[in-house]
Amino acid sequence: MSSATASLVGMTPAPSLLSGQTPLAVRMRPVALDEVAGQQHLLRPGSPIVTLADPGAKTASSVSMILWGPPGTGKTTLAQAIARSSGRRFVELSAITAGVKDVREVMQEALTQRDLYGQSTILFLDEIHRFTKAQQDALLPGVENGWVILIAATTENPSFSVISPLLSRSLLLTLRALTDDDIGALVDRAVTDPRGFSGRVALEPEARAALVRLASGDARRALTGLEAAATVAAAPDRTDGGEPPVITADDVAQAVDRALLRYDRQGDEHYDVISAFIKSIRGSDVDAAVHYLARMIEAGEDPRFIARRLVISAAEDIGLADPQALLIATAAADAVAFIGMPEGRIPLAEATIYLATTAKSNAAYLAIDAAIADVRAGGFGRVPVHLRDAHYPGAKRLGHGKGYVYPHDSDAGVVAQQYLPDELHGRRYYQPKALGGERDVQGRLERIRRILGEGRR
To answer: Per CATH, is 3-12+178-255 categorized as 1.10.8.60?
Structure first.
């Protein structure tokens, strides 16, 4: 047992185990900046947050700020700690429930408080990324004129979710995921602190390690898991009246059946994970690819989205090095649409493993992009006369089709004939690699090009 838990005493289950109590994560929220776990890069002396929380600076001009970071890293905690420390008037709104009318009312009241009583107002707006452009526009007068000091929190990249005028008037502060040591310290404090269990439960080292691991950098998740595990440990058949309930690793496993991944289907993590997934397939690291696939599945990602990316990967990164890859990816997409989840995870895994372990070539991808680049640059020219359509009336009089040689009349199935426009004669877009099935294509294509009589440009 760790030193933080070895001295725990008490016989009565914690009050938080009883129904109707405030959740442990809420009770343990820091009341001052020095209680905040992690984020030390934002809490150095003289930093904007520390200055804003200084009661002696409450009449000074302070800049608004946007707190951006993963869930459970302390955005709301920082805002409330600033409010408690600074002595400023504090108003909290949630972008989920507040509308333009609510924002304007807060702005008007803040202006009144400033003009009549000389009191500045901190407006904490949670989940600002959920605000529409019109709702964010309503914040601008108050922020620009200093009626309120805005502290906005978001889990999404503000560059995409916050309007430019508001961004330019605010400091962007990035919060980092909490380290394992940060999470461990929070768990230990919750066990001993009077706001938490006050020593009425004990925590085995293995259980502590499991909570830290399951938290995935999210303090709220760690404390919620601790509270649930404490309830399991405090069951009547587990308490003998002589010692506090001891939370074991099995209690944690029973209370928290899996780690809730830090993954937002509309946020940055969404793009980071799918990017890592595709790059792992491209890099032939099958284990990493399966890992990121599991993360997306467990986070509830749309399996059709995953399947579409597999189809793209098969065409872009594998191509003709293994033509079977596109068929397998397309079959996986059809299978997912047909059988749904959770069984759909199996064809998705099959396609992922196949794509990650097969030969790779982006030659087809490079070929079409090079051809498109020529066309966009005006390099297309006229279709050679012998290739033009000669079926409509008058076409033959124009010479369309004259001189065309039918390839099937040749034993080789290929004849010496120009197909590209004069301006692009000899241009080569497709350059197969000596990998997988493209090795055979490479040799065959060399023979074809010799027959066609094309020379390199």
So the answer is: yes
